[in-house]
Amino acid sequence: MSARKICLFTAHSPLGGGGGVILRSLVAHLPEFEIDWKYTAEAAAPGHEVGYLGRGLVGGSIGHDIWQTGKMLAGASSPAIEGLVTQLLATECDGYWIVSHNEGLRVAVELARRQKQRPVHLTFHDDWEGALCARSLRYRWFGRLARKLTVTALREVSSFDVISQGMQDYYHTLSAKNGPVCHRYLPAAALEQGSHGDTSSSDDLTVGHIGSIYDRADLVKFLAVLQQHGCAVGSKVVLKMWGCHLRSEHIPSFYRDSVRLYPPLAEAAALNELRQCDFVYAMYPQSRRLALFSRTSLPTKLTSYVQAGRPILSHAPAASTLARFVAATGVGENWTGNDC
User: Fold this and answer.
1) Distance, CA of 256 to CA of 227 (rounded, Å)
2) In terms of DSSP H, where are the helices of 139-266?
3) CA dist 210 to 18, 180, 223, 263, 282, Å?
4) Which residues have C-beta within 8 Å of that of residue 329, sequence separation ≥ 6?
5) Which helix (DSSP H) or strand (DSSP E) does residue 38 occupy?
6) Fewer C-beta neighbours within 10 Å, C or N terminus of the chain?
7) R_g over Cα of the chain
8) The pLDDT of residue 337
9) Rounded Cα–Cα distance for residues 289 and 313 (Å)
10) Quick check: 239 and 260 in contact, CB under 8 A?
11) Where does residue 301 rank: exposed (0-12), middle (13-18), buried (19+ CB within 10 A)?
């Protein structure tokens, strides 16, 4: 019996970001399916040229982007969406797997409405309203439209999965439907290598971090507490950050000597660096405006931290998915930032 063919669509490169990491891990462990990965991005990804459908709808110059994205979220006619849907409908497959990022949310709705022969499965790595709108000045006023389209998608598609229990609970309140939690797949061997850690023999207290920082003010609060602790125990403290978009001028001068900024690393190299740290740091924002984001998203960097085998300091609201993960697994401690 031949493998079932699935058309996977993402509005990002197969090689980019946390979403790409998650999807690549899943695709590699689904041998019973033939995955035809289609995507939009600024340019074709090396090794994935065949699936490239052109530039995405979301992004670009502010005026054009706001107009096009607003129409997309409102369900209005859109030549860009029409072109994508037409190409996907013409793809030979047994079913569709769509990721909700950017135009993916609208694409899933259109595919589900226009044909009933092939199921449409929708994957949520972030909530459009809580993450893309709340974290962006550009899309901030589109929150209600994004929520309405999300509810429509939850009701129209054949099935869906979510990134966290917090998102699962929230989407159940919106649609009375349940989707399973699905994150990156890690085989047992990936966890065993870092189970004992490999900390440096230096007297410095070294903290590791990879990826995004969601709130600079929260980071400064952490740096203040870190320096206080270093003074109390007589150790120099160093926060090493790989792949963070901060520049040195974003960090108050008083703390700059404690922060080392490095370019992104491939995961294998990043794990080697993280294993030499005393602990690793993960943050989710304390801001009320980003409360829905903190309650529903889940940082993919956690999968790297767990492989590194170092204790995790979670700096996040108690109700966040990050704090709940750390509490449930026992891999570290959570600090809400409300005390020192």
Assistant:
1) 11
2) 143-156, 165-175, 188-192, 216-233
3) 12, 27, 16, 10, 8
4) 306
5) strand 33-39
6) N
7) 21
8) 78
9) 23
10) yes
11) buried
- The stretches of 90-192 forming alpha helices (DSSP H) are 104-114, 143-156, 165-175, 188-192
Q: Which two tokens stand for residue 207?
A: 């903290």
CA distance 85 to 108: 9
Q: Greatest CA span in the chain, whole angstroms?
A: 67
pLDDT in tens, 274-295: 999 999 999 999 999 999 999 9
Helix, strand, coil share of the chain (percent; to 5): 45, 15, 40
Name the β-bridge partners of 272: none
Find tokens 């589900």 and name the residue.
112
pLDDT digits (tens, 9 = 90+) for 52-75: 999 999 988 999 999 999 999 999
Task: Look at residue 157 and give its three-state secondary structure.
Answer: coil
Q: Are 208 and 280 in contact (CB under 8 A)?
A: yes
Sign of CA dihedral 127, 130, 131, 133: positive
* pLDDT in the model for residue 188: 85
DSSP 8-state assignment for residue 52 = B
Cβ–Cβ < 8 Å for 87, 53: yes
Please answer whether residues 35 and 8 qualify as being in contact, where contact means their C-beta atoms are separated by less than 8 angstroms.
Answer: yes
Q: How confident is the model at residue 340 (pLDDT cuts 50, 70, 90)?
A: low
C-alpha distance across the termini of the chain, in Å: 61
Nearby residues of 314 by Cβ (< 8 Å), 6 or more positions away:
282, 283, 284, 322, 323, 325, 326, 332, 333, 334, 335
